[in-house]
Design brief:
With 230 residues, this protein is an alpha/beta fold. The protein folds into two domains: 120 residues, Rossmann fold, CATH 3.40.50; 100 residues, Winged helix-like DNA-binding domain superfamily/Winged helix DNA-binding domain (Arc Repressor Mutant, subunit A, Orthogonal Bundle). It is 39% helix and 23% strand. It contains eight helices and twelve strands. The strands form three sheets. It has a five-stranded parallel β-sheet with strand order 2-1-3-4-5, with helices on both faces. The chain has a four-stranded antiparallel β-sheet with strand order 6-7-8-9, with no helix packed on it. Strand 4, helix 4 and strand 5 form a beta-alpha-beta unit. Helix 2 packs parallel to helix 3 and helix 6 crosses helix 8. The radius of gyration is 20 Å and the shape is elongated. The N and C termini lie close together (10 Å).
Length: 230
């Protein structure tokens, strides 16, 4: 099941490019244009994250009122407050109402996507049990593998861990190679070779037989996918 992200903005066309980027990442994006739609979607769907604009029309702080209404119903869902205003007090007011993050609309798409991933990791279960051989402790970014009836910690480089989570979070769905290039290796001289090397290292560290992988699988000439364990 794809993570559902709600974007609340009364001018959806202004965040269209970012919504498209989220969809390319594999998230399901829902758009709300006011407080009523926001509360409806909050009750109707199991949302993973809310990205909330502060200014609505001539009301420069309506987003703060919407945040208050969200928190009256749900105090756990991560909320990123987004603004193009320069009022320095807005960040303090946002945090006072239990926003998780406060960012300017000038933030790059790549930085905002990274923040989204961070929020979603925080909202994930502390332990993802793949099966009786692999478990991931997301609170400590730790992967454990069972070998010879003993659980062992596996050291993953930060990018290896991020790639693994990307695949695990989309278990059963093929992630296009081009999508992985764009997300993890946008500046690599040879993205295909770099990705192949990271996948190979992950298999060596996780698979009992890396040449015949059971977890990280390949769709030839298309991409990679993690076995559907859910």
């Amino acid at each position: 099941m794809r993570s559902k992200i709600l974007i609340v903005d009364d001018e959806p066309e202004q965040i269209g490019a970012f919504a498209f980027s989220l969809q390319k990442e594999g998230y399901e994006v829902i758009i709300a244009e006011d407080d009523l739609e926001t509360l409806y979607f909050l009750g109707e769907f199991q949302l993973a994250l809310i990205i909330l604009d502060i200014r609505f029309g001539y009301d420069e702080r309506m987003g703060l009122d919407i945040l208050k209404k969200i928190r009256s119903r749900d105090n756990r869902i991560p909320v990123i407050m987004l603004t193009g205003l320069s009022d320095e007090r807005l960040d303090l007011m946002s945090y006072d109402r239990d926003a998780d993050y406060f960012v300017r609309k000038s933030i790059s798409t790549e930085s905002l996507l990274a923040l989204v991933r961070r929020c979603l990791r925080r909202g994930m279960p502390e332990t993802i049990v793949i099966d009786d051989q692999i478990a991931i402790d997301t609170s400590r970014n730790l992967v454990r593998v069972k070998r010879s009836d003993n659980w062992q910690n596996v050291h993953l480089e930060p990018k290896e861990y991020d790639i693994l989570l990307k695949l695990v979070n989309n278990a059963g769905r093929v992630i296009m190679r081009e999508q992985l290039y764009e997300q993890f290796f946008p500046y690599a001289k040879d993205p295909p070779e770099t990705l192949n090397r990271y996948i190979s290292e992950l298999r060596k560290k996780l698979e009992s037989d890396p040449r015949n992988p059971q977890y990280i699988l390949t769709r030839r000439s298309v991409g990679y996918w993690f076995k559907d364990y859910r």
